[in-house]
């Protein structure tokens, strides 16, 4: 527990440091100016300041909104406070997509927040799809170094023609570099920004073991500091209009600085619990863009020998189960 406490202090200090480009200084847009409600009628509430939004999930429906514009590259972020208490089965999503325009070959860049039973913490899942490549999931999952239900925290996506970077409180947690081997699997078509809360009982918590319990409803997710800083695309001409400031920011930020890379490394060593690159049950051979880190591979094999070690489930003995249980108890946040 002492090691874990030191890690929490380190990450708290890192969150306050600004190195390289900072997502914290981007222009904030109003809801009326930049977004449209998708669904949920009265379950979406815009606050009087015009820049904060509340999304609710109850027995009737979830809720959500989307950006008015399509974008081809940029920075997209929001400060989010997640529902507290029992939240199993609840999914809060902050993501880019063009599924409405390209039903069979859509692109997507996802932040998904997965609720949990009482006493267990929310988890984050990131994922990308390009050109309808849903058959090749590129998910990663993580714990956080803070309680996301106690206060607002910033979650951001940088998308350029060569990089996708996911941020939490200005700390990069995942970098996806476009490689030739990915082909069309790298998102490359204009997308809108979507934000939703919905019932994911069938899969979100322990593979669907625990679903939404509406005894604890309403589930309320709060959003503020909404940022759309990118290259808007005319829906008819399909040509991006990128102001000089946004274009310069994208170029400046697509390379992670050495100090940011140190922060990302600490986060991934301590808090990443799943990566498709190491999943031996789904992919006998890692997808071509994967760069396998031996230390990450060893740590995940200890965390879950079945998924990451290729050990058949019926061969797991009591020693394996005890070891994983001990790790979950001391390192989960």
TrEMBL record:
Major site of localization recorded for this protein: secreted
What top-level branch of life does the organism fall under? Eukaryota
Q: Which keywords appear in this protein's UniProt record, sorted alphabetically? A: Apoplast, Cell wall, Cell wall biogenesis/degradation, Disulfide bond, Glycosidase, Hydrolase, Secreted, Signal, Transferase
Might you report a single GO cellular component term?
apoplast
Q: What are this entry's molecular-function GO terms?
A: hydrolase activity, hydrolyzing O-glycosyl compounds; xyloglucan:xyloglucosyl transferase activity
Report the leader peptide range. 1-20
Could you tell me which InterPro entries the record lists for this protein?
Beta-glucanase-like (IPR000757), Beta-glucanase/XTH (IPR044791), ConA-like_dom_sf (IPR013320), XET_C (IPR010713), XTH (IPR016455)
Chain positions covered by the region annotation Disordered: 312-333
State which Enzyme Commission number(s) the record gives. Answer: 2.4.1.207
**Which residues of this protein are catalytic?**
108 (nucleophile), 112 (proton donor)
Q: Which CDD domains match?
A: GH16_XET (cd02176)
Q: Where in the cell is it found?
A: Secreted, Cell wall; Secreted, Extracellular space, Apoplast
- PTM: Contains at least one intrachain disulfide bond essential for its enzymatic activity.
Enumerate the Gene Ontology biological process terms: cell wall biogenesis; cell wall organization; phloem or xylem histogenesis; xyloglucan metabolic process
Cite the PROSITE patterns for this sequence. Answer: GH16_2 (PS51762)
Where along the chain is composition biased (Basic residues)? 312-324
Domain spans labelled GH16: 21-223
Which family is it part of?
Belongs to the glycosyl hydrolase 16 family.
Q: What does this protein do?
A: Catalyzes xyloglucan endohydrolysis (XEH) and/or endotransglycosylation (XET). Cleaves and religates xyloglucan polymers, an essential constituent of the primary cell wall, and thereby participates in cell wall construction of growing tissues.
Write down the PANTHER family for this protein, in alphabetical order. XYLOGLUCAN ENDOTRANSGLUCOSYLASE/HYDROLASE PROTEIN 8-RELATED
Question: By what name is this protein known?
Answer: Xyloglucan endotransglucosylase/hydrolase
């Amino acid at each position: 527990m002492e090691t874990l406490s030191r890690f929490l202090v380190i990450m708290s200090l890192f969150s306050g440091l600004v190195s390289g480009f900072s997502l914290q200084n981007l222009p904030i847009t109003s809801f009326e100016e930049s977004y449209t409600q998708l669904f949920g009628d009265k379950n979406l509430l815009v606050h009087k300041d015009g820049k904060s939004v509340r999304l609710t999930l109850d027995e009737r429906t979830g809720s959500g909104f989307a950006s008015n514009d399509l974008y081809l590259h940029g920075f997209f972020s929001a400060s989010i406070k997640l529902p507290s208490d029992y939240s199993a089965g609840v999914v809060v999503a902050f993501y880019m997509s063009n599924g409405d325009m390209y039903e069979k070959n859509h692109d997507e860049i996802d932040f998904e927040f997965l609720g949990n039973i009482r006493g267990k913490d929310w988890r984050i899942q990131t994922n990308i799809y390009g050109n309808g490549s849903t058959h090749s999931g590129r998910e990663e999952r993580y714990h956080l170094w803070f309680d996301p239900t106690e206060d607002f925290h910033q979650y951001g996506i940088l998308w350029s023609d060569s990089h996708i970077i996911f941020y939490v409180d200005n700390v990069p947690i995942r970098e996806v570099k476009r490689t030739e081997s990915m082909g069309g699997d790298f998102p490359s078509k204009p997308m809108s920004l979507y934000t939703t809360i919905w019932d994911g009982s069938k899969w979100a918590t322990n593979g669907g073991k625990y679903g939404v319990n509406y005894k604890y409803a309403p589930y309320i997710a709060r959003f503020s500091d909404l940022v759309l800083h990118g290259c808007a695309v005319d829906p008819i001409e399909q040509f991006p209009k990128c102001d000089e400031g946004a274009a310069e920011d994208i170029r400046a930020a697509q390379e992670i600085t050495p100090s940011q890379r140190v922060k990302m490394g600490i986060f991934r060593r301590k808090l990443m619990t799943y990566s498709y690159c190491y999943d031996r049950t789904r992919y006998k051979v890692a997808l071509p863009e994967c760069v396998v880190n031996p230390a990450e591979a060893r740590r995940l094999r200890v965390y879950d020998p079945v998924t990451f070690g290729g050990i058949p489930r019926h061969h797991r003995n009591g020693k394996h189960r005890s070891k994983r249980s001990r790790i979950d108890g001391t390192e989960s946040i």
